Structure formats: C-alpha cells, structure tokens
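Follow-up to my earlier ticket, as requested here are the two runs.
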Amino acid sequence: MPAGALAQSTAVAETADGNSEIIVTGTRTTGRTRLDAVSPVDVLSGEALRRQGTTEVATALASVTPSITFPRSSAVDGTDSIRPATLRGLSPDQTLVLINGVRAHTSALLNTNGSVGRGSAAVDLNTIPSVALDRIEVLRDGAAAQYGSDAIAGVVNLRLREARSGGGASVTYGKYITDVDTARGSRKERDGGTVTAAGWQGFALGSEGFLTLSGEYLNRNPTSRGDFDPRKAPIRVRSRFGDPEVEQYSFYANAAHPLNSDGWELYAFGGYQHRDSASAATPRIVGGTGSNANASADALASLYPDGFTPLIAVRSTDFTTTGGIRGEVSGWKIDINASYGRNQLRFNTNNSGNATYGAASQTSFYDGRLTYDQLVGGIDVAKELPLGAGTVNIAFGQEYRREGFKIAAGEPDSYNRAPGAAAALGSGAQGFPGFQPSNEVDAHRNNFSTYLDIEAKPVEQLTLGIAGRAESYSDFGDTATGKLSLRYEFAPWFALRATGSTGFRAPSLQQQHFTSTASVLTDGNIVETGLFPSTSAVGRALGGQALRPEKSRNLSAGAVFRAGGFDLSIDAYQIKIRDQIALSENLSGAVVVRRLRDEGITAVTAGRYFLNGIRSTTKGIDVVAHYRAATAGFGTFDLTAAGNFNDIEITRAPGAATITSSTGTAVLPIFSRQRIVSFEQGTPRTKVVGTVDWSLQDLGVTARASYYGDVTQPSSNGFAQDDIHTGRHTIFDLEARYQVVKNLNLAVGANNLFDTYPDFVKLTSSRGTALNSTGLVGFPYYSPFGFNGRYLYGRISLSW
C-alpha cells in the first residue's frame, strides 16, 4: 500500500536537531521521526549511498546497513546477474520492497542454484539508479499486517528525488587493483574497470508541481578470481570466476502537480532499465582423463581445440510505472493509485556448443525467456482525530493485485539431442541448456486485501498501535495478519518500544510454476530430469503438494536514548517462521523411475520440486549509535556505529521422502544438511559497521570499517569437515572529496583499501576430501563482501 503518499509528500524533512529524519515507512501518522517510531527504522540518505565507489544500490545499501548483506555469487547461472539481498539473514523474498510506498515487482528470475537465497524470486534493487534516490528507509520489523505479503524480515522503501529545480551530473571510473592469493599461487589482477555516468534534473510544473528526471549509464568489465587449473598443461587460470560483464542504462521520473486550491494533486513516477550481462559457466577442457574427462568438450574439439568457457548472457528489461491522485475530503486524506511493473529476462548461451551435433554445432544459442509482471491498484484513507488529551490516527484501505509469470522456450538446438548421439554427451547448449516446449508456462493469479491501521497517542509520552490485514488469493485461499505496537517515553532522552506481529509470505508464482529440465539418454530413450512444479504430474508422483503460504510470528523490544547530537537505539528481535518453502533434493533411482512409470510418466527419470515444511527461529540484536558535532575550527563530524548480531536455527526440516512403486520402496533425503547449513550459516552472524564522515569548508572525508563474521559454505557430501569458511574479516573504505569551485567536486577513494579477501578455498579438507581439484573457484561464493579485492576510483561531480 502507498503509505508514503499519505504520510508525507516532501522528499527531505528533519527536526530541529538536524539528525532525526521524518519517516513514512512503518507508520501512517504524519510527523514521526525515526527516533519516535514504534519500530526500528534506518534512514539512509542518497548522498550516503553515492559517496562510495559503487553505484549499485544493493551494494551501497549493504555497505552502510549491518542488517543487510549482498553476496556477490559467481558460477550460479542467472543469479550472477540478478543478485538478491538479504535482511537479518532471512530469505531475500521475505523482505518487501516499496518504491515511494508502493509495492515493487520482483524479478522474473528464480534462484535455483547453490547461492545464498536459493529458491527465492526477489526484487532486483539494482534496477533503480542511485542518482534517482533521495533516501532509503529500512524498517527492521515484521510488517505484513501493514503492507501485505513478504514483509516478514522487514521493509525497504526507496524514496525518489522530488525537485522543481537544480540538477547534477557525475562521472565515476574505478578498477580493481589487487593481489590475488589462492591455494595454488599468487598473481596480480587489474580488471573490472567500470565507468558510470549519471545525472538528474528538476523541472517546475506550474507554480507548485515538479518533475524530476534521472538517468544512469554503466559499463563494467568482468573480473576473474578463480584458482590455477591443474587439469591440463600449461597450468593457468581458465575459469572466469567473478563479476559478470555488464552494460546497462536506466531512467527514472518522479512528478506531482496540484489539481486545485483544495490540496488535491496528481502524481506519477516510473522507470526503465535495459541491462546486458554475461557471466561465465564452468570451463570445459579437451583431452582430460579419469575424473577430468569431459566427453562433451572432446566432441566439440574441432570448434574449440583448447577447450572453452560458455558465457551465459542475460538481457534484462525492467519497467515500472505508477500514477495516482491524492487529497483531502473533510479532513480525511485519500490516496488512489495504480501501478504496473514488468521484468523480462532473455537468455543466450555464447561461446558454447551442442555436443550431440559435434563439429556441426552452432556456437551461440537463444535459450528462451522468463517474464514476470504485476498490476496493483489501491486506495488508502487516513485521518488524525482528537483522543482525550492526545490524538488517534485511523487508516484503512484496500488493494487489488494481479501477477503473471511466463516461460518461453528457446530455439530447438539449445535443448535438443541429435539422433544417435552417445549417452555420455550432454544435451543442448553447454553451460545453460535452453527451456524446452514442455517447460513453457503462462500462469496468473490475483488477490484482494483490506487493512485497518490505528496509531494512538492518548498522552504525549505513550504511543499505541494496532493493525490488521485480511487477504484472499485466487490460488491458495485466505490469510489474516495482525500487529500490536507500544512506545513509552520516560523522559525526553529515553524511551522503550516493543512490537508483536504475525506475518506471511505467499508462495511466488515462480516457486509454484517454474519448470526447467534437461534431456538425457537412458536405455536408448531420451528422457527428462530437472525441476517440476509441485502440483505437476511428476511432482505429485514424487510426493509434491500445493504450496502453502509461509507464516511468521515476530517479537521485538528496544530502547532509544538521545541527548543533543547523540542518539542510540538497541532492538532485540525474535522471528519464528513455519511452513517455510524450499527446493527439494533431486529424487532419482530405480524406484523413482518405476514410480513415475506406474503413473504413466515415461519421459522423466528424476526430479525435484518446491515444498513447505521448514520451521526456523531467528534471534538477534540491532544496535545503532549516531553522533553529530559541529566544531568551531575542525569542521563537522558525523559518526555512526551500527551492528547486527543474528542467529538462525532450523528447528524442523522435512523428513525423508518415502517413494513407493510397484516394485519396491525407497527412502530418499529430500532436505539435506547442505540446505540447513545454508539457512543457518550462509550469512554472517555478526556484522558491524563504523563510519566517520568529516567536512570542513571545501574538504570532505568518509572513512568506513565493516566487520563480517564467519560464513559457512556447506559441503554437498554431508561432512562438516568439508565445509568451506570465509573467515572473519574487516573491510576498510576511504573517500576524500574536494570542492574545486562552487559547482565542481572531485572525489577519490578506495573500497577495500587494504585488499582483504575471504579465506581462499583449500585444496583438501581436514579429512582429505578434494575441495579445489579443478581450480574453478578461488574463494567461497557465499562471501558477504565478495572476493574482488581492492577497488580504486575517482569521481567528478557537477551541480547547478
């Protein structure tokens, strides 16, 4: 729901002390500051996001917010290009993202590989250029009763610039200059060169309206951080394990115009992004023997005598638009709006081949596309009324949402097998086989919701809140959530706050309908194996059921201290989730094949699907301390220290699947230790960020230190000794700025100044298991701060 439109229409607001920003997230009452809120809210200015080497919103947000992490995974197909962020270590799709208070649409991509966030379809934060943002508000509390599905971990509200005049432009160039130390040796790398050109301009619409236009162009070269490959002489780095190559351009607009003198106005905002990215799959070597043999690479040796590395190209087009009208009738604030968003991903595999065609194979393939779209319409009504010596704010509204998800097949050679091809040869394009006609999907659903949100201040010191929401989905039915909140100010410098709520997350259309299979040759027949919907014939034969919504219970309690330019907040939380959705293990074997044959399914030999059944408990503490001081001769100091201390425990996991066929029964693991460890230890349990921002006349310096606790990348064989660990590390960032003349600024800086890496992947574990036999990966791709090393950059900025 577009709560922000009701709460406030100006882009920046501060109280008299200059450090307590007015918020619009988590409350529908006007004038609340982040320190007066009943729930913890971080307010991050656009300037703080842009005073970094990166222009990616997700990366910048994670660098300044301890509760958010943004792993830079690699070698996980489309997730290399569409990376998800996490809040409080929970699944990326358990955080709701809003733009100006209106629900944003998710990416069409379903993360199905071994990255953090496996099984989720989340909002791609990097579709919005940082130059378009005035600020970001992060609500660290369950808010499904206020905003609907997904707000289990919290809410991220992206607030766009609002300007009638002025403008600015900047050009940033940076490059990784780093020393790479892997298990097999050391080397220097100078790669990842990135240029970003961005600008914005405000225009007056009439006497009071505004139009703000923003745009950004980014071009980034790939990075390579794999180890030396020992499988073939000469020993060298053959993989491209790192960031993908990216070229993208983005545009955003934000506007409002009064209709009359009664305060009614029209507003609209929206954006478009086109992104071309190319990530690398596993390198294929020719002439390998034993465990290094690759029949598909040998079959394509006439095309690639020295082997090849397939490149997975993803073309993303993302579009969103929102329009509405808002005003007052008899003191009741009314906001009526509609929003439409769409994301389409087109996949190509390049520098590859279909091994079953040998020398006659083409080398580039169109693999198909995924499309997700969302239509949202809503009305919000609110009014503040007297309540004894205080006030009560009553808000209510309704929302309609329609979602769609489509899979379109690729060209035949991207998935076909040539007649008579050997069974050992992989089907379709090496690296990323195309979607087949049997994978095509065109699914839709709609839901209708209504909510009531009451926030009362019966006396000045006390704030009480109650919210309730009911939703009805066309696919799985109805759900209801509620929230209670309390804040009491014992003194102007000290307050306590607490909340209790229930929440939910509807299973995404991608989780319900995504299908991806590969053809293999079994007993002379071409059959399929892969991921199937849980309610498909294959899914039901293997025990699949219709997915249910995830449910949560959130509790939080905290304290706020403030004195002059200093403020401190401490918030403890517990989040219990049941019916959590996850991707099963691949179910295969003779009994599985027989079971499928018993059901009349002869073209499939194995499969996996999404299922409910996980219960988890997340406990933690968030601490945020801030101090701002203006001195007479030494400039202004803005100091922030913040930490997130988080622990996740899986308290219940799905048991083994019992598959019964006409010839026997098999008990197969359906949720492995690997998935449990990924949930519990795939993000840092401790993250602490300290920032110093200093300015004196024309000079400015920002220094930041970020500590990350150890993260575990679980082994696939079930042995803890074979897990890979990132280790505990502190990353230091530094930026210096100088205003040359009134409208011209120069900045130079370094992200990861001291060239810190996660612990490299060892050759063998303590029990002798080979962890790095191919040299494909040099570092854990679960690393919460990536594995690219030192990044040096410069920026030229103009303002007018």
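Run two:
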Amino acid sequence: MLLSAALFALVPAQAFAQDSAQSEPAAAASVDDNGNEIIVTGTRAAGRTKLDSAAPVDVLSADSLKRQGTSELAASLSSVAPSVVFPRSSAVDGTDSIRPATLRGLSPDQTLVLINGTRTHPSALLNINGSVGRGAAAVDLNTIPTVALDRVEVLRDGASAQYGSDAIAGVINLRLKQASSGGGVTASYGQYVTDVEAARSSRKERDGEAFQVAAWQGFKLGAEGFLTLSGEYVDRNPTSRGDIDPRTLPASPAVLRSRFGDPDVKQYTGYYNAALPLGDNIEFYSFGGYQHRKSVSAAFPRVPGNANNVLSIYPDGFLPLINVKSNNYNIAAGLRGESDGWDIDFTLAYGRNALDFRTTNSINSTYGANSPTSFDDGGLVYDQWVGGVDFTKQYPLGDGNLNVAMGWEFRQEGYKIIAGEDASHDRGPLGDDSSLGSGAQGFPGFRPSNAIEKNRQNVAAYLDLEARLAESFTIGAAVRGEHYSDFGAIATGKISARYDIAPWLALRGTASTGFRAPSLQQQYFTSTASVFVAPDIVETGTFPSVSAIAVALGGLPLEPEKSTNLSVGTVIRTGGFSLTVDAYQIKLRDQLGLSENIAAGFSEQVRDILAPYGVSAARFFLNGIKTKTRGIDVVANYKLRTDSVGTFDLTAAANFNDIKVQEVPTSTAVNLDPVPTLFTRQRIVSIEEGTPRTKIVGTIDWTLGGFGLTARASHYGNVTQPSNNPADDIFTGRKTIFDLEGRYQVTDNVGLALGANNLFDTYPDKVPLRLNSSGVVAFPYYSPFGFNGRYLYGRVNVTW
C-alpha cells in the first residue's frame, strides 16, 4: 500500500473520475438510461450492459437471491441461474459441510470467483470422495452472505485471457453493497415438512429447522465516501432421509441409526465494503469479511456387530459424527483514480481458509475398551495473496472508440496439512488384528507423515482491447501471459465480436483459449491410513504425484489443464422483451483426475514397487482426461407494467448441456504390466452424467401496491449416480420443483413474506431396494436439487 500511495503521489492532479457513493445499495449507476443493468464482468469498457456484451452475462439482483427460503448463496444462485447447479451431497465426509457448485456441468474449480472484481480464494478442502466435483478444491460460495450483496454477475464464457487461471467455464463476480446511509434487518425461520417415501418405509418428517437473522447498515465517510457493514447469523438443524436398516433385528428406522442429509450448521459472518475519496483524483477503497462455521455431518452408522465396534462402549452401535470448523477470511484494499485519461487501480488482497476436523461419537477399535470417543483429526489451511495494477483508457476511433486495458498481477499461495492427535490415526495395542480399521472411525486423522507446508508464486500480465466501431460493430481481443514458480509459463488469448444488425437484433461470438493451474491441494494433499497386512503394518491412501511412492508407480509433476472455448449467439430486444440464445463448445485437454487405488495385490510388479515404502495401495492425481462440452443457453425476459393489475417480470431460462469424455489416461509413466485401471467407468459417467443435461427455470415476479408474489418452476433432467456396473447405476429421474413466495409490505419499513421451496414435496427417484442393503443412502446424493422435500418458511424484513 505504501508503494501504491507513492506511485499515486506522482500522478498529476486531474478531475476525480469515480462515481460518488449512492445512498441505497441498488445504486442508480448500475443501470443505463433505459434501465438495463451495467456490467463490469467480461468487459473492461465502461457502460456496457448485459444486452450489449459480446459474451453472455447474467445479472442477478440481491432481491432475486433473497426471495427464497435458503440461507446459502450457492443454493440461491442455483435456483435462478440455469447454468449453475448445487448438488447437496451427503455421506462424503468434509464435502457434506463444504459443498461445491458447478457451472455448465464442468468441475467446480473450473469457474473463477471474484469479489468486487478481485480474485477470491478457494477452500482448503479437496473433494476426494465420490461426490460431484471429485478431485476439486473450489471456492466455498456459502462463505459470502446474500445480505452483503448488491448483485451477482455470472459470465458464461471462457475468460482466462482476461482473468487468469480457473476461468474455463466462466466467472462469478460477487458485487458487494455500496450504501452510505440506510439499513435493514431480516429474520427468517423455516423447516422441512415432508413425507419421506423410501424403498422400505414411509414416514413424515419435521426437521431441518433453520433460523437466520441478517442485517446491514450504511454509513457516510466524509462528504462522498461510504462504509457498508453486513452481518448474518445462521442456526440450521440437520435433516435425515435414510431408510430402515435391515442389518439388525428388529429393523429400525434409519433415522434413529443413520443421518443421511444436511449437516447441522451454526455460523456467523460479517462483511464490510468502503470507499473514501482522498483528493480530487484518488480514492481509497477496501472490503473484506470473516465467517466462522461449525458444521456437523454423519458418517455411515456402525451396527452393534460391526468389527470396529466395542460393545462395552457402544452396546447399541454408534454413528460417527464429523465436526468441521471453518474460519474464512477476506480482506482487500486499494487506490484508484484517473490521470491523463487513464483509470488506474492498485489492489492488494489476502484470503485464508482454515479447517479443523474432529470426529466425535466414534472409536479407535485398535485401542479396545480404552479408546477415546472424541478425536482431534488435524486440519487444512489455504491462504492467498493477490496484488496488481490495472490501467484503462478510452481513445476515440472514427465514429466509435477503442478501450485499452492492461495490467499485471502477482499471486502467492500457501497450503498446509496439520496432523491430528495420535489416537486419531494410530493403530493401538490391538493393531495386529487385520480385521480392525485404522484411526478414528468415520474420519481418521491426518498422520505426521501427511503434514506438509507448501507455497508457490505466479506473476501475470495482460492486454485487453475492445473497439466499438460506430454503433453497430464491436470487436475485442485479449492476451495474457503467466509464469508459475512450479510448472513454468503459459499464455492464453481471446477474441470477441458483436454486430448489431438492427436496434432489436444482434449477433455475437467469442473464441478463446484457457487454462487452470493445478491447485496446491491437488499437488500436495496426503491422507493415509495404517492397515495390518501380516506381518507388517502398511499405509494406504492418497499421495502427491511427485512423492517417492507415486513416482515409483509413474506419477509426474502436474501440468495445467487447457481449454479451447467457442461461443456464438444472438440478442433480441424490443420494448420490455429480451431474448438471448448462446451456443458453446468447450474442449478440455490435460484435465486432472484422481486415479483409482493401485494396490499391491494387483500384480507382483506393483507389490515389488510398493514394498520398500511399506505401502499396500496408493492413488494420486495425473493429467490426461480429455472432454468436449457442447450446449445452448437461452434466457428470455419480459417486463409488463399495468395500472390495474400491477407489474409482471417474467423470465424463462434454460441450459442444455452435453459432456463427452473422449480420452482418459490408461497408463502411468512407468511400464506396468498388466496395466491397472486408472479411471473406472464410475468416474467417466460421473463427468458425463453427474449433472443434469437439461435445466429449465421459469419465474414470475408480480407486484401490486404492497403485495408481491414470486412463483418459480425448475425442471431438472435425469442425473446418473454411477457404479462400475451399469446395472447398479442410480438415477434421479426427470423432476420439476415448484417454489412459491408471497409478500406484503405492511408499512414503508416493514415487510412480511411466507413461502415454500419444493411446494409439492418432490424427491428424486428412490434408491432401489437391492442397492440399499444398509438403508442409509435412500436417495441419490447426486441429486441436483437435494433430497430433503418441502421447506416452509416465514420472513420479516425491517428497513430504515
């Protein structure tokens, strides 16, 4: 920041170029003279609206996000943006608590997330289990409360040449409130009121009670500055959607033994956004936030006769609980201003996510009756520094203009694994019994041999040109080069064009190359367990691809994923009606994936390779997956204002998406003969059919005086929860979910709302009886809308 201030001191005094803060969070500067939303994502030219852009951009207002019964931003986005899907996985360890969202069906880490245009950090968690997004370390969208947001911009186009790594599927830009006065508080309460129809049983459930209170307040800083504070508290009880467990007699409802559903969550979050003019040509700005979340999910239940149960401790069996404490930080500060027609922006940002794991109601069976029942399993930490400077200037060009943007960025990332207590991972006095599992049942702790601390740096520079020739033709080009300290340099490029055939009709298209750098989590995550293989205790688990064990099996340093993106579309608008149709193709190569376990029992050659390391099985990340994604996005909107029956805002949006895996790695860098299967059918089908190929959302927003109504129908195509045997695949079926909310403004400052998510209590298809031997997984956890049923809620909103 001292360097930034010194550089600005050299800038000649010019007219201050920043807009003054608005008194309300929905600032007038966010729309043009015709009421169209001005965007800042996907273009660096000032004044572009979502209907003027060369690439498709969704602008989702804070109102559309909060007019729902959920406290989760990712769930809100999934409800209103067809290209976004938020599966609500369960029984997949830490991913139950930190669930990733997907864009256009691609991996969650192939979407870049920004806050106020600045790159934010991903979670420290690496999803290594069988959920959607396996192998990804993605941004946890639910760390940002909707109360802090003015709007969300979703760029549905490859943008690595503009923003850098991760922007293969697109970009989600979270824009914080900018208010210098006013405020409000919202309190809501809801619960699931549902009939659960599983394969073996049916019952009524009243659970998942959720209480949420959120508030914001704007303050004036000086004559033209602002400070907006936002806060939220959430207390959400767990849900359970298991079936009868037939493994013991008499059979009992699984809800009493298992807990298959949403975790128990208690969290509080605070955010701020501020700007203060320091003179005629310079403004200081800053934003940031903190969230503490405690989440408790359940592992699979252990019945009394389970080999890892100790009857003297748990005579009725036990249900291990996985406790995840997440502390998430964001802070950014910068200076921006104008000199000689150049808009200049210096930014420095820091983000950190720390996860602490604890297993309770559990046991380490190798300690017998002396086993603890609660274990400190260790933790994961990821942090990131981002600094950079951007320069933007507009030049006259004939009857139009040329917008020139350029800049550089520096980023440093760090990743740490912290070991848990000895009993969470050790084999105790009974460890020679090979029938007993290792460590804490449900979630074994990280071992001292797993503990690591790694970091890397990268620098980047970009040039972004956008020319508007007269009023009918726009063309753009961008190029970006980056150098990473671990794998070297990479360059990406993008071209875009738009032609307005008439005021009501335009054609647009883009072509770009993209990349995603392998995350530190993918490069260095290590999780092992000790098992007894007579006469030795050996390790099995996940290893870095550059570890001695993985290298012996053919592991290599990870390279970046690369993409080629093509998009072509049309924009139609007349009066209050607009329609955009965009077709796209995304070719991915060198995509990363987590291999299957390569076990010593596979062949004598593998046994001999692993023997010196005391390892019985290993898996690691490797490049080599090749996919092709094709799809069409359609968004139609019509606004109708009448004097007698109110105002109608009608939206219909759809995403049709098809992913094909064209190639997977079939061998490692060493000659293993025979060759083990590195990627099974289950992994391939998960990529191709793990998210819906069709998603259609239709919304009606109606207002008349103090009354308001939102009705939404969301149709999801069939999703496959795959198995290695096609006959054992589980399907969600094609489902349509209906949401309804009614509102009444009691006074100018007090509003009430009542609503129902999933009004008609729709579930995915149940898991067939023959595939549900334990009764735990009664519904497919790949379901894109979850499996909790009808949710009823009420909300009170007070503003001032």
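The only thing I checked on run two: The longest strand covers residues 375-397. Let me know what else you need.
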